[in-house]
Amino acid sequence: MARFGVRLAKAVAARGPLCAGIDPHPGLIESWGLPLDVSGLERFAVGATEVLAAETAIIKPQSAFFEAFGPPGVAVLDRVVKAAHDAGALVLLDVKRGDIGSTMAAYTAAYVAADAAFAADAVTVSPYLGFGSLDPAVKAAREAGNGLFVLARTSNPEAHALQSAKLPDGRTVAQSIVDDAAEHNAGAEPYGDVGVVVGATVAPGELDLTRLNGPVLAPGFGAQGATAGDLRALFGSGLPGVLPASSRDLLRHGPDAAALRRAVGQVADLLAGPRGEDQ
Ligand SMILES: O=c1ccn([C@@H]2O[C@H](COP(=O)(O)O)[C@@H](O)[C@H]2O)c(=O)[nH]1
């Protein structure tokens, strides 16, 4: 199988950069007229995936909302991964795992190794036990043709104090994470397999991404207030390698499949910019 970075670039070239989040919030399940139980979860999550995964390059199921339903909810997550692949999308599982290296090896077996229990193409990981603690996942993902997205500067307002704190060498914590990710991506074409997460809500100028040579997941677009203009101000007009992610702001248009498809089209138009001149 081709490397994740290669597969992602191909998928984005074909379907655009939008990453559709599958976040079965209880309020959304109910707003779709579904019962707040595992059957409602399944109809919501698989239904949304079948529509959104046919329109977008990459789908991001949020594991927490499935875990909240216990083991049967996790089984639904597995079915969402399969439904997304059947519809032709890549799957970025948002699990935000991170632990000491030896435990990371077990997470690796769960999510990114070649025969992983969940057949995702990439997962989100947390570097806050030290970037080096992620080494088993980086190695296994590379061997399996999968990818990682490392939390660098997250979209939530509480993140600033910790992630923008300065290290003794003058860089911010978030910048050091971007730089560590960049080392794994050096020389890869079109880009490497170790992406970072940088919230669309982050102020421009906080991070230098020029050497990253990897994809950037940018959540916070839509429901958290970031606009397409914010994304362009933060990442540059062509949004190279950037995957703007939206969950609630897309899902609220369901359960009507046509309305969901229209919402994806409207977001794609916004991301393309006026007359698409900055693509
Ligand atoms: O910095 C981060 C990292 C991850 N997320 C996740 O993205 C979605 C956002 O959902 P919206 O409904 O589009 O706000 C959610 O799953 C978060 O856990 C993030 O928001 N910020």
Automatic annotation (TrEMBL):
InterPro entries: Aldolase_TIM (IPR013785), OMPdecase_AS (IPR018089), OMPdecase_type-2 (IPR011995), OMPdeCOase_dom (IPR001754), RibuloseP-bd_barrel (IPR011060). The keyword Lyase applies. Residues 17-263 form the Orotidine 5'-phosphate decarboxylase domain. It is an enzyme of class 4 (lyase). PROSITE patterns: OMPDECASE. SMART domains: OMPdecase. Signal peptide: none annotated. It holds the Pfam family OMPdecase. Gene3D superfamilies: Aldolase class I. Keywords: Decarboxylase, Lyase, Pyrimidine biosynthesis. It comes from the Bacteria. It catalyses: orotidine 5'-phosphate + H(+) = UMP + CO2. GO terms for biological process: 'de novo' pyrimidine nucleobase biosynthetic process; 'de novo' UMP biosynthetic process. Its EC number is 4.1.1.23. One of its GO terms (molecular function) is orotidine-5'-phosphate decarboxylase activity. Pathway: Pyrimidine metabolism; UMP biosynthesis via de novo pathway; UMP from orotate: step 2/2. PANTHER family: OROTIDINE 5'-PHOSPHATE DECARBOXYLASE (PTHR43375). Belongs to the OMP decarboxylase family. Type 2 subfamily. This is Orotidine-5'-phosphate decarboxylase. It comes from Amycolatopsis saalfeldensis.
